[in-house]
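Next comes a concrete protein, fold included:
___
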Amino acid sequence: MGGYFGIVLMATTGAVLLGLERLWPASRTQRGEWVNNSAAFLLILLAQVLLGAFWATSETRLVNGLGGGLVDLRGLPWLAGAAIYLIAMDLGEYAFHRAQHAFPWLWALHSLHHSDRGLNVTTTQRHFWLDPAIKSVSIWLAVALLFKVSQPMLTFYVVVSLYNFVSHANLRLGFGPVSWLWNSPQYHRLHHSTDETHYNANFAALLPIFDVVTGAYHRPRPGEFPATGLEDRAVGPLEVMVWPIRGVFRRGKASLESQPIG
């Protein structure tokens, strides 16, 4: 899938979900930081341009082309191969997400994603610009070394992954007793919750079965749509650019403001 086509597909998905959020919101009072989310997304796109071939699907094609891929999924029926690849990638996403919450240096980056005080579809791309690059040399590289896949299988995974926009959307939508089967906006909202009873739960990107297996599964109660975010104060686009070390600049500014004039 070409980069431009992928961006158009993301924009179209986002536009549709923005309309649905206005009709059926989980929260009418919390406001997402759309400017900061847009700034984060633009920085990610810039990093993608700079990395070129060493990015996600391009990296997979490169690694497979150089002989990588211990298991060749191309000999299987297309849907079976695509399903195996999706499960493997989602397991990688899950492991990486758990690491982001377990290791302080990764949390320093990932906390930007959780800091949005109004979870909505634009929060999907609110990541520090280094996050996707780290995924590219960990998850994507590992799965590319394990599996040799066809372009249609890669495209299938990328299209299904657009569902992440749905799971982050400010929508009053949950799957009730089958919430363990597939992620939903309600299920993932609990992961972003400010309520301590929801901490360290519901890490799944697409398949909550990984939460069930690891004991991190928290089934949403009917009508449970908690507030989200980390900080009470708003942050600016410049802080998004230097998120892990923003405290240095914040303390410096506070020090200057506290000094007497003259």
